## 1
Amino acid sequence: LVEDDPIQREEIQAQCEGFGWGVEAVADAARFVDRLQTLARADAALPDVLLVDWHLGDGADGLSALAQLQT
């Protein structure tokens, strides 16, 4: 879960966890990209679903963050 608004992030995380889903939440695109790249390098399990905010407060957007993972 990538959401820059802490209240929204906590609420979405709680809802997802209420469904029994494991959730790892970060506040910005840089942490999101870094975390997924770290998992990939470690050959660890990657998430089944990515929930990414469209407008992130760090000037990035969710689509740009996802595009960084394709490189």
## 2
Amino acid sequence: PIPQVSETKQKPIIELVDQMLEAQKKLRKADFENDKKAIEKQIEIIDMKIDHLVFDLYGLNEEERKIVLDS
């Protein structure tokens, strides 16, 4: 089931998704391998932040989070 979430809780996720979309655009336009690697690292960090916010929305404990991340 999809949880009903207030705008206050949605806002950080929306902001991170916007950052992710912008980073993806930068990655497609990057010419140099070093730039690509730095952007890929940024994307990885943003993705992890989104994951943790979603885990919080669903009330997952550490064991459940590990299961999701390991799958």
## 3
Amino acid sequence: KVSVINNQTGALREATSGDDGTATFAALSLTGSYTVSVSKAGFGSEERNDVTLRAGPDRQAYMLLPVIPKK
């Protein structure tokens, strides 16, 4: 699961990543910054704060999730 929160408005968008691990969010506001969170069952999670967007090419955030050992 990938979540994107606009830090100024609190608007939340969520998506499920594809088999290749990518998720796309169209038409995000260029105003303000975002917090991007990624999680998956059996793995840990990662969060990036203060991600800013600019007009132009797609913005990509590469995130690695640690594997949670089975108990």
